[in-house]
Amino acid sequence: MAGFKKTTHLLFLVILTMGCTTMNKTVNKMFDKVDVVAADKISEEDLKPLPQVVQNYLRFTNIIGKEKIKTVRLKQGGGFRLKPEDEFKTLKAVQYFNLEAMEFIWQGKVSVITATDRFLNGKGDMTVKLLGFIKIASAEGPEVNQGEVVRFLAEGVWFPSVFLNDYIRWQALDERSAKATITLGDFSVSATFHFNKKNQVEKITTKRYMEKDGRFELEDWEIRIVEYSSFNDVFIPRKSEVVWKLDDGDFCWYKPEIYTIEYNIAAVYE
């Protein structure tokens, strides 16, 4: 019996290692596309084309004088649940971004379940696996593409210089809100950023496709900022809440918390 347990444990470690190796190869391939050495520094002049409320926000983040962010790697955790009646379970994840190509890879783990969320080469996909190699769910297609671009746009608050990139277009709505839009081919995705009197983003609202019993339905989706912190001398949300705004009430399904985040380090975590 002891030998069987040892063999099972070794097999489990081999499977996890194989999964990590595959992801690392994909991340390295994504990072090969970008030159982080030639990152220009951000100036006040760079902010001028943006709506005033967005300019004020970017000044708050303290990015002026710093290098423009081209790549991101981060570790996060927080509570996650699939249904409103469920208890939150602890989720831990790593995520990598290439902001020049507008790509990302996210991988989160809850117990023996691993979920991977990606947007690469203009296409998104989601995969859920048991023990890192047994596929139990997957999705791709136009609705997934829309959802991944929405996610990328909203998560820009973690690396705010992305809002200076040409692929994001801004429109002022009023003194405390502005709409950001990304257009890819024949579809566009927009989100409204709501700012408080401290010039912080306090809420992001948009619509996103939600999977319901194998079908996708467009629902109201919201991110609420709970707490800001300084990482790399840049002020970003440390804690947030991700909420579906449904007809029968709000469903908060994820409470992400940033543990660590690094800019312009084009390498996977060891």
What does the secondary structure layout of this molecule look like, with pairings?
Elements: H1 2-31, H2 44-47, H3 52-61, E1 71-80, E2 89-90, E3 92-98, E4 103-110, E5 113-120, E6 123-130, E7 134-140, H4 142-154, E8 168-174, E9 177-184, E10 187-195, E11 201-212, E12 215-231, E13 234-246, E14 249-263
- Portion of residues in beta strands equals over 45%
CA-based gyration radius: 19 Å
- CATH superfamily placement: Lipoprotein localisation LolA/LolB/LppX
Give unreliable regions as ranges: 2-18
Helix coverage percent of residues? 10-25%
**Tell me, what's the shape?**
globular
**Sheet of most strands:** 14 strands, antiparallel
Kindly report the CATH topology.
outer membrane lipoprotein receptor (LolB), chain A
Number of helices: 4
Number of domains: 1
Q: Tell me the number of strands.
A: 14
Distance between the termini: 33 Å
InterPro entries: DUF6544
Protein name: DUF4292 domain-containing protein
Tell me what you see in this structure.
It is a single chain. The chain has 270 residues and is an alpha+beta fold. It has a single domain (2-263), classed as Lipoprotein localisation LolA/LolB/LppX (outer membrane lipoprotein receptor (LolB), chain A, Clam). The protein has 4 helices and 14 strands. It has helices at residues 2-31, 44-47, 52-61, 142-154; strands spanning 71-80, 89-90, 92-98, 103-110, 113-120, 123-130, 134-140, 168-174, 177-184, 187-195, 201-212, 215-231, 234-246, 249-263. Strands 1, 2, 3, 4, 5, 6, 7, 8, 9, 10, 11, 12, 13 and 14 form a 14-stranded antiparallel β-sheet that branches. Residues 2-18 have low confidence and may be disordered. This is DUF4292 domain-containing protein.
